[in-house]
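Treating backbone geometry as a discrete language has practical consequences that deserve illustration. In the encoding step, the backbone of a single protein was reduced to a row of integers, each denoting a local shape. The amino acid sequence and the backbone structure tokens for this protein are reproduced below.
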Amino acid sequence: MHVVPPNVNAFLREGRFSLVAAKPEVVPKPSVNDFFISLAAEANDEAIGIVLSGTGSDGTAGLRTILAAGGVTLVQEPGSAKYSGMPHSAIEAGVADFVLAPQQMAAKLAELASLHEQARTQVSEEIPQVLFEKLKARREIDFSGYKSGTLTRRVRRRMVATGTRTIPE
């Protein structure tokens, strides 16, 4: 766990945390959005963002970026938060994969780590081709123009988010 001091923002660069003076026009200071955006760029589908109690909407844009990168997001259940603004904002924006009380988050993180590892071993670069063929046959949707790496990450992300452990599931 890292605590960011006032008036600076944390970023993840090449696997390391760095602190940068906050821009005067950006509030709050520190901003979790900036950190989440750097986390998504660095970790892609391995990023996990968590928004806890706080006021305002900080974290919502960052969680959106994590989702776009294929990561997973957790948000504190607003009824369990001292300040529910940040959790409400994330939930209303539709960027919460899981809405949980803080005491449920450790178990969910352990489950996500296990699911992510299983998805990594289950989904190879060839899997999207099999899915393309099935979707084209059943729904007449042609995904063959999509990059297989992108689709592989998306399939892994859906497996983790839905708790799916194997491709046949």
Q: What stands out?
A: The chain has a mean pLDDT of 87. The two ends are 35 Å apart (CA to CA).
